[in-house]
Design goal:
The structure holds 2 protein chains of 2 kinds. Helix content of chain A is 29%, strand content 17%. Chain A has a 7-stranded mixed β-sheet with strand order 2-1-15-14-13-3-4, covered by helices on one side. Chain A has a 6-stranded mixed β-sheet with strand order 21-23-22-27-20-24. Chain A has a 5-stranded parallel β-sheet with strand order 7-6-5-9-10. Chain A is globular, with a radius of gyration of 24 Å. Chain A starts with 16 loop residues before the first helix and ends with a strand. By secondary structure, chain A is of the alpha/beta class. In chain A, helix 2 packs across helix 18, helix 7 runs antiparallel to helix 10 and helix 7 crosses helix 11. Chain B is an alpha/beta fold. Chain B has 4 domains: 169 residues, FAD/NAD(P)-binding domain (3-Layer(bba) Sandwich), CATH 3.50.50.60; 111 residues, FAD/NAD(P)-binding domain (3-Layer(bba) Sandwich), CATH 3.50.50; 73 residues, FAD/NAD-linked reductase, C-terminal dimerisation domain (Enolase-like, domain 1, 2-Layer Sandwich), CATH 3.30.390; 59 residues, Arc Repressor Mutant, subunit A. Chain B contains 13 helices and 27 strands. In chain B, the strands form 8 sheets. A 5-stranded parallel β-sheet of chain B has the order 3-2-1-7-19, covered by helices on one side. Chain B has a 5-stranded parallel β-sheet with strand order 9-16-10-11-12. The longest helix of chain B has 15 residues. Chain B is globular, with a radius of gyration of 30 Å. The chains are: A alpha/beta, B alpha/beta. Chains A and B meet through helix 5, helix 9, helix 10, helix 11 and helix 22 of A and helix 9 of B.
C-alpha cells in the first residue's frame, strides 16, 4: 500500500514527510508478528496464559497499566475498562500525562471543560492574529500552517524555530519564563486599555484577583525576567486585536508550573474577550494522533469514560451500571509517579502504545525501575526500546490494519478505516484485551473484540458526560463532521463551544490568579545552560516508528544538540563534533549543531532517539502540582567533551 | 506561636507578609500601616500620573486580603515607639508584643531648600505636591489640566517619569535639575543629552544646572540664574530619605538608613529592616527589586523555612517607565571609551534618539546605557543579570538581534539547501526532478512532494522553476 494525496486532514489538506511515508511502517522489516516470552517466540495462548498466571499472584494495585495517546478511542476505552474491571487496579495512566495534561487542567478550571480547540480549525482562516505559545507546527504539524497563513502570527518560543521564522513577531523568552511573559502581556493590555471590560463583567469571574498578580508584572520587570523587550510586549498586545486566537502547545505546558502557565495564557485571552466568541478564542494544540480522544475515555488515573471524574459518585454509578460491575477502584498514580513506583509498590506493568524507556523524564532512572519489575508486558508492532526489555511482547495491529475512531485537536471524531489485513500472527489490542480478560476469569462478552461493538459501548458510557459521544455512529462518521458533545443521534454535534456560556454551572469563565515561579531547576555554576527538548519534523514521539522508516531516518539519522556558536566555542566544541550533555540526572551524547539564533544560555535537544541519545536522560521529573506534568522543557545542563 | 510584627504596609511590608504566609500558615503576623488604604504598587505610580491606570488598579491587595490570609492589619495609626526591653510597639494606647519586629517604613520625599515650598508649619505650600505616595498622585491628577504650566523639581528617574506622564496629559512641563545632565547617577553626559533631546521632542522643557531659589504660589519658580519658570503646579521629585525616626528613637544603628547585615538584622537582632528604610552595602535604596529580594530572604529566616538564607545584594538595573522612551542603565557606566581596563563600545544617534554604551570586563557586561535600543536593552540586561559572557558578535549585541539574512536568489542556494522542510526536499532534488521533465510546480510536487505539507515553500519552488526555465538556452 502507498499513500496518495487526498483530503486526509482537517481543512485544505497536506501531508508532511511522516504522513507521506507512513505506509512504509506497514511493511517495516522490524514488524513483530509473533508473541515473545523472554524474547523467545511463543504462541498467543502461551503468552496470555503466562501473563494471566503471573498476575494472579499479586494484589490488584501491584499491577499497573500504561497507555498511550496514540491509541484509538476504542482501545483507550477498553484499556481503562480492562484495568478497572479485569485487573481491578487503580494504577492506570498514560503518556498523554506527558503531553497536554497541563492544558487540560487549565482548560477545565477556566471553562469547566477541556476540548483542545473549542472551535473548528477552519475558523483560524479568518483570524487577524494567532498567538502560538510554545508550539512549532512548522515541524510538528505542517499542514496546520495553511490555516494561519493570512493571519499575523505571534510565536512565543525560546528558540527561533521554523515557525518563529514565519512569524510577524517572535517573542523569545528565556526557557521557563512563559508565565511571566503572559502576565506581562495582560498587564500591558490593561494599561494600553485593550481589555474587554464588558466581556469581563458579563462572562467571567475573578478578574480582580488575577489582575492583582499581573499588576506586579509591569513590562520592564517582565523584560528583565524573560528577555522579551518592552517594545515587543507592546507590539504583541497591539497585534492581538480583531479576530484573535491564543493557542498553547507543549513548549509552554510541559513545565512543573505548566497548568499555571496555561492559566496565564487563558487569563490573557479572557481579558481580551476572546473565548466563546465567534471568530476568536483560546485552544490547545494536541500533540499525539489521538491526544484528545485518548484523554476522554478512561486511561487516565483520575478519569472515567466521557471525560468523567473518577471521584464523582454519580459518574461512578453510571459507569458501574454500563459495565455491570459492583465496584470500581478510585484514582491512581499519575504517569511519572506510576513509573517511579515500579519495582516497589508495583510489580507488574502492561504497556500499550507507549515507549517510556525513551519518553519518560529522568529516563535512566525509569529504565532501571522498569527493569526491576517482576513482569513487564508490552503490546507494540515494532520492538521498541521498552519492548526490548519486556518479559512478554505482544504483536498488535497498526493504523491501516483496523477500524477505529480518533478525536482530533478540535474535538472532531474521525473514523479511520481499515485498508489492509494485518500480517499473520498479529492481533488487535481489542482481541488481546479480550483474550487476557477471559484468562483472568472475565466473561468474554464484557470485552468485545470489534471496534464498532466497543464504540457502541463507549457511546453508552460517555452518555451524559462532558465528552458525550452517545449520538455518534460509525455510519454518521462516514458522511458527517461531528464534534463532541453529540448527545443524541439527531444532534448535529458541537463545532463551537461556549458561545452561549461556559461549562461551569453559572456559565461564567474563571480567571485563575497565577504567579510566575520560574523553572524548578535554575541554572548555576555547575550546570550553567538550560536544555529544552522538542521534536524534529521527520520523527514522532520516541521515534520507535519513524526511525524505522528509511527515508525519515536518512533525513535525521541521529540526535543532535543545537548550540549557539559562542557557547560551542567556549566549551571547546565545533559544529559536527560529538558532545556529552550532562545534567544532575544523567549524561547523553549528541552531535553539535551550531545555530546562531539560539540563546547562548540554552541548548535544544530532540527527544526521538534511543540509548545514549535519549534527551530524557537529562530531563527533570519535577511535577506540576495540578496536572502532574513533568518539567520536560527546561533543565540545567553543561556541555563536556565526548 | 511566634509573633512577627511588621511596621509599614508598603511594597516591602506587604511582600514580606505574603512571603511569610506562603511559607507558614500558622505564624502570627501583624502589619501596621499609617496610610488608610491597602498597600499599592509604587512602581506603577507614574502610570497613574500618566492616566493609564487608576489608583484602584495599582493596589497590591484587595480588602479581604488580611482576613483571607489570617493577618492582623492595622491601618491609619502610626507606631509611636518601640520598646526593645519589653519587646512591644506602641500603637496609640495599645502595646503590641513581638518576637520578631520588622521595620519596613520606607522613605519620605526630600524637599529642596527652596524658599516658599513649605509652609511655616512644614507642610507643602498650595500648588506643591511631592511625587511619592498614591495620595500624591491623586492630588497631581486632580490638579493637572491640559495646557497648564507645571514644573517638576528633579531630573532623576522618578522626576522624568512624572514629567513624561504629565506631558502625556497635555501639561506644559518644565524640569528643573541642579546637575548638568539628566539622571546623572545612571547616565553619562552623552546619554543625558540624548535623553533630554528625546523628551524635548515630546514637549518637555529642561532647565539644567540651576536650582529653584523661590516658589511663589500661582506664579511659579524663580531660578538661581535669575530666570523664571511659570508653574501652576510644582511636583517635587528631588530624592528621598530613609524613614528612620522610630529606629533612631529606639537607639538602633542608623546611617543613611537603618544599618542591616546579610541576615537583615539591625543592631538589635530581634529587629530587622528591609526596603527603602534599610541600608545594606549590597544595594541602593529606592527600587523595588532589592526590597522584594530582602522580603524573600527574611521570610525564609523568620519562618525557619531556610534559616541559612542570606541577602547578598541585588544588581540594580534602571529602567525608565515612560511612554515612547526606551531607556535602560545598569552597572558601571562612567567609563571612557578608551579606558584600558575595559572594553567599551559606544554608539550615538541623537537625531533618532538612540544611544548605546556597553562596558565589558573579562567578556562580561559591567555596565550599559541603552536608549532607543529596546532589543539590546532586553538582551544585555539578561546577560548582566545572569552573569553570562557577551556574544562575540558585539555589533549584533548592540543591535539587539541579528539582522535578517537577505533573501537568497535560487542561483545562490547550495544544492543541499532544504527548500521544502515538511518533506526534506533539497534544491538539488528539485533541480534533478526538473531536468527529468517535471517542469511545473505541480509536476515537481508529484515527484518530490515539495509544497505538499504546509505549502510555505510554494514561492521558493516557483522561483526555482522560473530560474531553471530562464537558465535554459532559448529554443529558436
Amino acid at each position: 500500500m502507498s499513500l496518495t494525496g487526498h483530503q486526509v486532514v482537517p481543512g485544505p489538506g497536506g501531508l508532511c514527510q511522516k504522513g507521506w511515508t507512513s505506509a512504509e511502517l506497514l511493511r517495516t522489516p522490524g514488524r513483530l508478528t509473533t508473541p515473545l516470552i523472554n524474547q523467545e517466540t511463543a504462541t498467543w495462548d502461551e503468552a496470555l496464559q503466562h501473563i494471566a498466571d503471573k498476575i494472579k499472584g499479586y494484589e490488584p494495585d501491584q499491577v499497573a497499566v500504561f497507555g498511550g495517546g496514540g491509541l484509538t478511542n476504542e482501545k483507550a476505552y477498553l484499556l481503562g475498562k480492562f484495568a478497572r474491571v479485569a485487573l481491578k487496579t487503580s494504577q492506570i495512566d498514560y503518556n498523554g500525562r506527558f503531553c497536554m495534561s497541563s492544558a487540560a487542567a487549565a482548560g477545565n478550571r477556566a471553562f469547566g471543560l477541556d476540548r483542545g480547540m473549542p472551535f473548528p480549525l477552519e475558523d483560524l482562516q479568518n483570524a487577524d492574529t494567532v498567538l502560538l505559545a510554545g508550539s512549532n507546527p512548522a515541524e510538528t504539524m505542517p499542514p496546520f500552517l495553511q490555516h494561519v497563513k493570512n493571519a499575523n502570527l505571534i510565536v512565543v518560543d525560546p528558540r527561533r524555530t521554523a515557525t518563529a521564522e514565519m512569524a510577524t513577531l517572535h517573542l523569545q523568552p528565556a526557557p521557563g519564563t512563559d508565565l511571566a511573559l503572559a502576565l506581562g502581556l495582560l498587564h500591558t493590555a490593561f494599561i494600553d486599555n485593550r481589555i474587554d471590560k464588558s466581556y469581563i463583567a458579563e462572562r467571567t469571574k475573578g478578574f480582580d484577583a488575577a489582575w492583582r498578580v499581573a499588576a506586579a508584572w509591569w513590562p520592564e520587570r517582565v523584560e528583565r525576567v524573560t528577555g522579551v523587550s518592552v517594545a515587543d510586549q507592546r507590539a504583541a498586545v497591539e497585534l492581538l486585536k480583531g479576530n484573535a486566537y491564543i493557542l498553547s502547545g507543549r513548549g509552554t505546558e510541559q513545565h512543573a508550573s505548566g497548568t499555571d502557565t496555561v492559566s496565564a495564557w487563558i487569563n490573557l485571552a479572557l481579558a481580551l474577550g476572546l473565548p466563546g466568541r465567534k471568530g476568536s478564542g483560546y485552544g490547545c494544540l494536541t500533540g499525539q494522533g489521538n491526544g484528545q480522544g485518548g484523554r476522554e475515555h478512561g486511561q487516565k488515573a483520575d478519569q472515567l469514560p466521557g471525560y468523567r471524574k473518577i471521584d464523582d459518585p454519580k459518574a461512578r454509578e453510571h459507569i458501574k451500571r454500563v459495565w455491570g460491575v459492583d465496584d470500581l477502584p478510585g484514582p491512581g498514580r499519575s504517569a511519572y509517579e506510576l513509573l517511579d513506583a515500579l519495582g516497589d509498590d508495583i510489580k507488574v506493568l502492561l504497556v500499550f502504545g507507549s515507549n517510556p524507556v525513551v519518553s519518560a523524564p529522568r529516563a535512566a532512572h525509569i529504565t532501571e525501575k522498569i527493569k526491576s519489575l517482576d513482569l513487564l508486558v508490552v503490546a507494540d508492532f515494532v520492538l521498541s526500546e521498552t519492548a526490548a526489555l519486556a518479559d512478554v511482547v505482544l504483536p498488535v495491529t497498526q493504523w491501516a490494519e483496523e477500524n477505529g475512531t480518533m478525536t482530533n485537536l478540535e474535538g472532531r471524531i474521525l473514523l479511520r478505516r481499515k485498508a489492509l489485513d494485518a500480517p499473520e500472527g498479529v492481533r488487535s489490542d481489542l482481541e488481546l484485551l479480550n483474550g487476557l480478560a477471559t484468562k483472568l476469569g472475565q466473561p468474554a462478552e464484557r470485552f468485545p473484540t470489534t471496534p464498532e461493538e466497543v464504540f457502541a459501548e463507549l457511546r453508552r458510557a460517555s452518555e451524559g458526560g462532558a465528552a458525550d459521544y452517545s449520538g455518534v455512529t460509525y455510519e454518521r462518521l462516514k458522511t458527517e463532521k461531528l464534534y463532541w458533545p453529540v448527545p443524541s443521534e439527531d444532534h448535529p454535534g458541537t463545532p463551537r463551544m461556549f458561545e452561549d456560556g461556559f461549562a461551569h454551572e453559572d456559565g461564567l469563565a474563571r480567571f485563575v490568579p497565577v504567579d510566575h515561579k520560574g523553572p524548578a531547576e535554575p541554572p548555576d555554576d555547575e550546570f550553567p545552560l538550560q536544555a529544552t527538548t522538542g521534536r524534529v519534523l521527520q520523527h514522532y514521539q520516541s521515534g520507535a516508528q519513524t526511525r524505522r522508516v528509511p527515508e525519515l531516518n536518512k533525513a535525521v539519522p541521529e540526535v543532535f544538540v543545537e548550540v549557539h556558536p559562542d557557547t560551542a566555542a567556549r566549551n571547546g566544541l565545533a559544529h559536527g563534533e560529538l558532545t556529552n550533555v550532562v545534567s544532575r540526572r544523567g549524561t547523553m551524547t549528541a552531535r553539535v549543531r551550531c545555530v546562531a539564533s539560539m540563546r547562548p544560555d540554552a541548548v535544544f535537544l530532540p527527544f526521538h532517539f534511543p540509548g545514549d541519545g535519549r534527551a530524557n536522560l537529562l530531563t527533570n521529573p519535577a511535577l506540576d502540582p495540578t496536572s502532574r506534568m513533568p518539567e520536560f522543557k527546561v533543565c540545567a545542563v553543561r556541555l563536556e567533551q565526548a | 506561636m511566634r509573633r512577627v510584627v511588621i511596621i509599614g504596609y508598603g511594597m516591602a511590608g506587604a511582600r514580606l507578609a505574603d512571603e511569610i504566609r506562603r511559607r507558614d500558615k500558622e505564624i502570627s503576623i501583624t502589619v501596621i500601616g499609617d496610610e488608610k488604604h491597602a498597600a499599592y504598587n509604587r512602581v506603577l505610580l507614574s502610570t497613574v500620573v500618566a492616566g493609564t491606570m487608576t489608583p484602584d488598579s495599582v493596589l497590591l491587595h484587595d480588602e479581604e486580603w488580611a482576613h483571607d490570609h489570617g493577618i492582623e492589619l492595622r491601618l491609619g495609626e502610626p507606631v509611636t515607639r518601640i520598646d526593645r526591653e519589653k519587646r512591644t510597639v506602641s500603637l496609640g494606647a495599645e502595646d503590641i508584643p513581638y518576637d520578631a519586629l520588622v521595620l519596613a517604613t520606607g522613605s519620605r520625599p526630600w524637599v529642596p531648600p527652596t524658599e516658599g515650598l513649605l509652609d511655616p508649619d512644614g507642610v507643602m505650600a498650595p500648588g506643591v505636591v511631592a511625587f511619592r505616595s498614591l495620595d500624591d498622585c491623586e492630588r497631581i491628577v486632580d490638579r493637572a489640566q491640559p495646557g497648564m504650566p507645571v514644573a517638576v523639581l528633579g531630573g532623576g528617574l522618578l522626576g522624568i517619569e512624572a514629567a513624561r506622564g504629565l506631558a502625556g496629559r497635555g501639561c506644559l512641563v518644565t524640569v528643573v535639575h541642579p546637575v548638568g545632565h539628566l539622571m546623572e547617577r545612571q547616565l553619562d553626559p552623552g546619554a543625558g543629552r540624548v535623553l533630554a533631546r528625546t523628551l524635548t521632542d515630546l514637549g518637555i522643557e529642561f532647565r539644567l544646572n540651576v536650582f529653584a531659589s523661590k516658589y511663589l504660589a500661582g506664579d511659579g519658580l524663580a531660578l538661581s540664574d535669575g530666570t523664571h519658570v511659570p508653574a501652576e503646579l510644582v511636583v517635587v521629585s528631588a530624592g528621598v530619605r530613609a524613614e528612620t525616626s522610630l529606629a533612631d528613637a529606639a537607639g538602633l544603628t542608623v546611617d543613611r538608613g537603618v544599618v542591616v547585615d546579610d541576615a537583615l538584622r539591625t543592631s538589635d537582632p530581634r529587629i530587622h529592616a528591609i526596603g527603602d528604610c534599610a541600608q545594606h552595602p549590597g544595594t541602593v535604596s529606592g527600587l523595588v527589586q532589592p526590597a522584594w529580594d530582602q522580603a524573600a530572604v527574611l521570610a525564609d529566616r523568620l519562618t525557619g523555612a531556610a534559616p541559612g538564607s542570606r541577602y547578598k545584594g541585588t544588581s540594580v538595573i534602571t529602567r525608565l517607565k515612560a511612554r515612547d522612551v526606551d531607556l535602560a542603565a545598569l552597572g558601571d557606566v562612567h567609563v571612557d571609551v578608551d579606558c584600558p581596563e575595559s572594553e567599551v563600545l559606544c554608539f550615538q544617534d541623537p537625531a533618532r534618539g538612540r544611544y548605546a554604551k556597553l562596558v565589558l570586563r573579562e567578556d562580561k557586561v559591567a555596565g550599559a546605557i541603552l536608549i532607543g535600543a529596546p532589543d539590546a536593552a532586553a538582551t544585555i540586561t539578561q546577560l548582566y543579570d545572569r552573569g553570562q559572557p557577551a556574544p562575540t558578535d558585539r555589533l549584533a549585541l548592540l543591535l539587539g538581534r541579528a539582522l535578517p539574512s537577505e533573501a537568497a536568489s535560487p542561483a545562490d542556494l547550495p544544492a543541499s539547501a532544504v527548500v521544502c522542510r515538511c518533506n526534506t526536499v533539497s534544491k538539488g532534488q528539485i533541480v534533478s526532478a526538473w531536468r527529468a521533465g517535471a517542469e511545473s510546480v505541480g509536476a515537481i510536487a508529484e515527484v518530490t512532494r515539495a509544497t505538499t505539507g504546509c505549502g510555505g515553500c510554494k514561492d521558493a519552488v516557483c522561483g526555482l522553476v522560473d530560474w531553471l526555465a530562464a537558465s535554459q538556452p532559448q529554443s529558436a
